[in-house]
Design brief:
This protein has a domain of 67 residues. Helices cover 72% and strands 11% of the residues. It has 1 helix and 2 strands. It is rod-shaped. Keywords: Coiled coil, Plasmid.
Length: 112
């Protein structure tokens, strides 16, 4: 078998002669490297899938928290509106009482 490699700086093609044993050894090494790469990629894929599942759970939890906070916010806005309405009613009642009060002027008593 022949192995052809190119050298850029020489711009020539070099032919390397390999024995059958060397070729088989290199093929075995390549197969082992491919198997190790496949195992590493499968392991990485499993980790990525686990990460995606975890992120999905986190996203669901975050959505639930956001919905709960939206409900709390709506309740607080409703309560604020109720308190504003009560404050307006009280202000109106105070203003009515003040306007209905007879105006009396206090004159100082004559001193002897």
């Amino acid at each position: 078998m022949f192995k052809v490699s190119k050298f850029k700086f020489w711009k020539k093609t070099k032919v390397e002669v390999l024995s059958m044993a060397e070729l088989v050894e290199k093929m075995d090494w390549a197969e082992k490297e491919v198997d190790e790469t496949i195992k590493a990629l499968v392991k990485l894929q499993d980790k990525l899938n686990e990460g995606l599942k975890t992120m999905g759970n986190i996203t669901d939890d975050a959505k639930a928290v956001i919905e709960r906070h939206k409900a709390i916010l709506q309740k607080s806005l409703d309560r604020k509106a109720e308190l504003n309405a009560q404050a307006d009613q009280i202000a109106q009642a105070v203003s009515t009482v003040i306007s209905a009060k007879p105006s009396t002027t206090i004159t100082p008593a004559a001193t002897e």
